[in-house]
Design goal:
The protein has about 350 residues and is an alpha/beta fold. It folds into two domains: about 15-110 and about 215-310, Vaccinia Virus protein VP39 (Rossmann fold, 3-Layer(aba) Sandwich); about 120-215 and about 325-340, DNA polymerase, domain 1, CATH 1.10.150. About 40% of the residues lie in helices and about 10% in strands. The chain contains 15 helices and seven strands. It has a seven-stranded mixed sheet, with helices on both faces. Helix 6 packs antiparallel against helix 7 (about 165-175), helix 7 packs across helix 8 (about 180-190) and helix 10 packs parallel to helix 11. The two termini are about 35 Å apart.
Length: about 350
């Protein structure tokens, strides 16, 4: 896995922008949903085509500053909602021709560099990692969950093979004091028996905590399900991932609904022959050499997309069952939240 956080970046760079635009074809008009608005890179490019509208979402309230400028410039063609993308189904879209839904699952440069968010192991002070609309922080996770819970978070969300030793040493250290970012980095360094000179010792553990704090697994799963429901026929669902766990979920979702029967609850079984999606490319699209030179953090980006073949909106998928073990680990947060209230 690769957390793809490079703190020396000078600006936010919308990853695989040309490829996204080529796939969703905004020149033909329609409404597009930018599920991870951030600094507005995708939205800005889509709105260059006069027959388009964009509904932008972001859980990070800081994005409202950029969004307000878009709303003034594009008026009726742009709307912003400060919600999680798993809540796509709450949008009022009855009269909208949804031709594309886009997810960029990376963190923006401004988020990485924001000291209040504490996303990086280079941060100083309190552990946080909340992207917005969260129930708890990384500080509460590290200082409240038990050893086995922490070990599972590091192991399954960060692929951290030494998660057991890291969790054990966290428990020891937090008896003495509340653990902050720098304390955690030291604990991880002292816990690692095998040194990786290509990767910072804290990379995998910090990735795991970001995923847990922001419930990124269930957010992605329910975001994909709801995106598939709201898309119109021939609409495109495009997702840019940055680590293998995200990519595994997206790959499974597209493959299962393009190769297997996509069951509508309201269609007789004898008539169910259609699959929900069509995939013109089964392998992910990766950044060009030119983009890699201009934007090194894009090195781990993978773009997958699928085209909706039919207009039915109520289908069944087993993706929740497929990744139930990861959702169960995320649900440690429910217990944590109850301890805090």
């Amino acid at each position: 896995m690769d957390a793809a956080i490079i703190p020396k970046m000078q600006k936010h760079y919308p990853v695989l922008l040309k490829e996204i635009i080529s796939i969703i074809s905004p020149q033909y008009g329609g409404t597009f949903i930018d599920c991870t608005f951030g600094q507005g890179g995708y939205s800005k490019e889509i709105l260059k085509f006069n027959q388009t509208k964009v509904i932008a979402l972001d859980r990070d309230s800081e994005s409202e500053k950029v969004a307000s400028k878009f709303e003034k410039k594009f008026e009726d063609r742009f709307k912003f909602k400060n919600i999680k993308f798993s809540q796509l189904n709450n949008l009022k879209l009855k009269n909208e021709n949804i031709k594309g839904v886009i997810f960029d699952l990376g963190y923006s440069y401004t988020q990485i560099k924001d000291p209040k968010k504490g996303l990086s192991f280079d941060s100083v002070g309190k552990l946080n990692m909340k992207l917005g609309l969260n129930s708890f922080s990384a500080e509460e996770t590290i200082n409240k969950l038990d050893q086995k819970e922490l070990e599972k978070i590091f192991r399954f969300f960060g692929d951290e093979k030494e998660g057991k030793f890291i969790a054990k040493n966290i428990i020891k250290e937090r008896i003495k004091k509340k653990i902050d970012t720098q304390d955690l980095v030291k604990i991880i360094d002292n816990s690692k028996r095998r040194k990786n000179f290509r990767l910072n010792n804290s990379t995998k553990s910090f990735q795991a905590l970001r995923i847990f704090v922001n419930k990124e697994i269930s957010e992605l799963i329910y975001g994909l399900i709801n995106a598939a429901k709201i898309l119109k026929k021939d609409g495109v669902l495009a997702v840019v991932t940055f680590h293998s766990l995200e990519d595994k979920i997206v790959k499974y979702f597209f493959k299962s609904l393009s190769e297997n029967k996509s069951i509508s609850r309201y269609t007789p079984l004898t008539e169910q022959r259609e699959t929900l999606f069509h995939q013109t490319k089964k392998k992910p699209i990766i950044p060009s050499d030119k983009e890699l030179n201009e934007n090194p953090p894009s090195r781990s980006a993978k773009l997958r997309f699928a085209i909706k073949k039919t207009d039915f909106f109520d289908f069944e998928t087993d993706i929740e069952d497929q990744f139930k073990n990861l959702i169960d680990i995320e649900n440690f947060g429910e217990k944590l939240w109850k301890r805090l209230v």
